[in-house]
Amino acid sequence: MRCPACQYNGTRVVDSRPVDDNKEIRRRRECESCSFRFTTFEKIEETPLIVVKKEGSREEFTREKVLRGLIRACEKRPVPLDQLEELVMNIEKELRRVGNAEVRSEDVGEMVMDRLAKIDEVAYVRFASVYRQFKDITVFIDELKDIMLRQSHDK
Q1: Cβ–Cβ < 8 Å for 121, 78
Q2: d(Cα 88, Cα 64) in Å, to the nearest integer?
Q3: 32: which of 10, 27, 54, 154 fits an S-S bond (Cβ 3.0–4.6 Å)?
Q4: pTM of the prediction?
Q5: For residues 63 and 91, what is the distance between their CA atoms, to the nearest angstrom?
Q6: Residues 27 and 40: beta-carbon distance below 8 Å
Q7: Which CB contacts under 8 angstroms, 24+ apart, belong to 151-155?
Q8: What is the pLDDT of residues 103-155, one digit of tens each?
């Protein structure tokens, strides 16, 4: 590690400790030449996860974007934010575990809907109506019938 003060290429680690829920390590370093102390952070570099949209464009997967959609769907519903954050985190973990660098937006949307249906049915219908872009009321009614059918099987 190069010293930011004198540019000498030798430092020693004075202190190390985990930060950000053990996702990073904070290191205090000292230059072996001028004794200048500074802090560095070390974290795992994850490969970007690319979402391929319906029209073919590509963008990097962002938890925040998925979370915003969920928050909008759960507006005025008794769903805690931490539950939504956990849902998004689990989806990202599953996508990364599969190991593909690219994932279709349809697959992400289906994963969100599968999990959201188990949390709150009203939020699920809201999300599905935007995601699936219901063309008319009959498609919407069909979706509601599917929910009612699942409910009857769960009981």
Answers
A1: no
A2: 9
A3: 10
A4: 0.63
A5: 9
A6: yes
A7: none
A8: 999 999 989 988 998 899 889 888 887 776 666 677 767 777 877 787 677 66
